[in-house]
Amino acid sequence: GESVGLHLPTLSVQEGDNSIINCAYSNSASDYFIWYKQESGKGPQFIIDIRSNMDKRQGQRVTVLLNKTVKHLSLQIAATQPGDSAVYFCAENWNTDKLIFGTGTRLQVFP
Amino acid sequence: DGGITQSPKYLFRKEGQNVTLSCEQNLNHDAMYWYRQDPGQGLRLIYYSQIVNDFQKGDIAEGYSVSREKKESFPLTVTSAQKNPTAFYLCASSITGTGAYEQYFGPGTRLTVT
Predict the structure, then answer these.
(1) Quick count: other Cβ atoms within 10 Å of Cβ A70?
(2) How many CB atoms lie under 10 A from the CB of residue B92?
(3) Which residues in chain B have their CB less than 8 angstroms from residue A34's CB?
(4) Contact between A2 and B110 using a beta-carbon 8 Å cutoff
(5) Distance (Å, rounded) from C-alpha A30 to C-alpha A24?
(6) How near does any CA of chain A get to the CA of B29, in Å?
(7) B11 at the A interface (CB within 8 A)?
C-alpha cells in the first residue's frame, strides 16, 4: 500500500485502550476544526468536526476537545481497535475558503 | 451511491509529458479541491473551485492547470513544467466553498513520473 507519512509522529496503543491524538493549531482566529482518518493508500475519511463556540463534541467512540486558550485540539478514541490504525489529520479554517491541514499522526494498535 | 471518484488509481508517465487526472462527484457539491500529498507531509492545496467556470490557485499551483466546465467534474492536468510531479493526488468536494464545512475526499491517484 501507499505510505502517507514516513516520518510522522507515531502513537502506539494496545487494543482496547483509549487513544488521545493531539494537534496544535496555528491561528487563534480559527473557528472550525475537523479530524480526518487516512488509511494507507486511501483518501482521508471524515471523523468529527467542531466549531469554536464549543469545547467538546462526541461521536461514536470518538470525542474532540478544543482548548482555544492554548490553541490545542485533541481526538480521543475509546476502546481502540485494530481497524483504527491509520494516520490522523487535524485541519482548521479561519473565515477563508480553505482548510489548512496538519502533518498528521500515525496511530498503531497492537494486540 | 453518492461520492467522489478518481481515476485511475495508479498512473505512470514519462518525464516531459502532460497528464490529466480525473475527478467526478455526484454529491451536488458546489466546491471542489485538488490536493497533493507527499510522504511526511500533510495535504497541500493545488487548486480549488467554488463554482462552475471559476477556480483559484492554491498554495502550490505552479506546473498544474484545472478546468471546471461542469459542476460534477474538476480535472487536474499535471504539466511538464511541474518539477517534481510524483506524488499522491487527492480530490475533494464540499457543499460550499466557504472552507467551514466538511470536505469529502476521493480515493486518490498515485502518479509516478520517470
Answers:
(1) 7
(2) 25
(3) 102
(4) yes
(5) 12
(6) 14
(7) no
Q: What is the pLDDT along chain A (111 residues), one digit of tens a residue?
A: 333 345 689 999 999 999 999 999 989 999 999 999 999 999 999 999 999 999 999 999 999 999 999 999 999 999 999 999 999 999 998 877 788 898 899 999 999
C-beta atoms of A103 and B40 within 8 A: yes
Contact (Cβ atoms closer than 8 angstroms) between residue B91 and residue B104: no
Judged by CB atoms closer than 8 Å, whether chains meet at B105 and A99 is answered as: no
Asked whether the beta carbons of residue B41 and residue A102 sit closer than 8 angstroms, the reply is no
Residue type, B79: T
**Taken in order A76, A78, A82, A83, is the CA torsion positive or negative?**
negative
